[in-house]
Design a protein that fits this description.
It contains seven helices and ten strands. By secondary structure, the chain is of the alpha+beta class. It has two domains: 125 residues, Jelly Rolls (Sandwich); 76 residues, Winged helix-like DNA-binding domain superfamily/Winged helix DNA-binding domain (Arc Repressor Mutant, subunit A, Orthogonal Bundle). A four-stranded antiparallel sheet has the order 1-8-3-6. It has a four-stranded antiparallel sheet with strand order 2-7-4-5. It has a two-stranded antiparallel ribbon with strand order 9-10.
C-alpha cells in the first residue's frame, strides 16, 4: 500500500501537549499584551484572535509595524538576545495566546525538528512580508496599500473559506497601518464598496478576491 503522506505540523497541538511551563492567557479587544520596553522573556503563539504590533519613536510618533493572526508567533526577539520588547502588542479583538518561556522555547527549537521547521517557516514568511511591506510603503499609493492590507487581514489565498476582515478593525487602525489619514481610508473604503470589492454585513467587513485588481493595476 502507498505510504500515507503526513499532514501539516500542528504547532498549537504540539505546544499544548508538550510538558513544560507554558500558560494560556486571554486578552480583550484593545488590551495591551506587552509594551515597548517590557522585559523580553518569552515567545507567544497566537491561538485565536488578532494582534497589532506598533512602535513609538522618541518624538512620540506611533507606527503600526505588523498585524498578526491566529497561527502566528510573536515576541521572537527574545530568542535574538533582545533584553526588552522592541514593540507594543495590542489585541485587535478577543484573543488567546500561549506563552512559552524563553528557555523552554530554545530547548524545543533544538530538540523538536518538526516544531523547529514550523517556526523557521513562520520567520521566513514574516521576513518576506516585511520586505513586501517596505516596498509597498515606498512605491505604492495609499489606495493600493489599503487594498493590500485588507487582503492580508482577510488572509487572502490561505484556505478556501470566505475571507473576512476582523469585525472590529477600525479606520484609525487601517490609517496607522498604511501611513495615511482616516479620511483617506474612509474615502477608499467607500470607493471599494461601490465597485463591489468589499461589502458589509452583520458579521463585519467581507473582502472579495476582486480587490486584488487594485493591487496589481498600474
Amino acid at each position: 500500500m502507498p505510504r500515507k503522506t503526513p499532514g501539516p505540523f500542528d504547532a498549537q497541538a504540539f505546544l499544548e501537549s508538550a510538558g513544560f511551563g507554558k500558560r494560556v492567557v486571554a486578552y480583550g479587544r484593545d488590551e495591551v499584551i506587552f509594551s515597548q520596553g517590557d522585559p523580553s522573556d518569552s515567545v507567544m503563539y497566537l491561538r485565536s484572535g488578532g494582534v497589532q504590533l506598533s512602535v513609538v519613536s522618541y518624538s512620540g510618533k506611533l507606527a503600526v509595524v505588523g498585524t498578526m493572526v491566529a497561527g502566528d508567533f510573536l515576541g521572537e526577539g527574545a530568542l535574538a538576545g533582545h533584553p526588552v520588547r522592541l514593540e507594543t502588542a495590542t489585541a485587535t479583538t478577543a484573543s488567546e495566546l500561549l506563552v512559552v518561556p524563553r528557555p523552554e522555547m530554545t530547548r524545543l527549537l533544538h530538540s523538536e525538528h518538526a516544531f523547529s521547521d514550523r517556526f523557521i517557516k513562520h520567520m521566513l514568511t514574516r521576513n518576506t512580508r516585511l520586505e513586501a511591506d517596505l516596498v509597498d510603503q515606498l512605491f505604492n499609493s495609499s489606495e493600493k496599500r489599503l487594498a493590500r492590507t485588507l487582503l492580508l487581514l482577510a488572509r487572502y489565498g490561505r484556505g478556501s473559506t470566505p475571507q473576512r476582515v476582523l469585525p472590529k478593525v477600525s479606520q484609525e487602525t487601517l490609517a496607522e497601518t498604511i501611513g495615511t489619514t482616516r479620511s483617506r481610508v474612509n474615502f477608499f473604503l467607500n470607493k471599494f464598496r461601490k465597485l463591489g470589492f468589499i461589502e458589509y454585513d452583520t458579521n463585519g467587513l467581507i473582502v472579495n478576491p476582486s480587490l486584488l485588481t487594485v493591487v496589481v493595476h498600474d
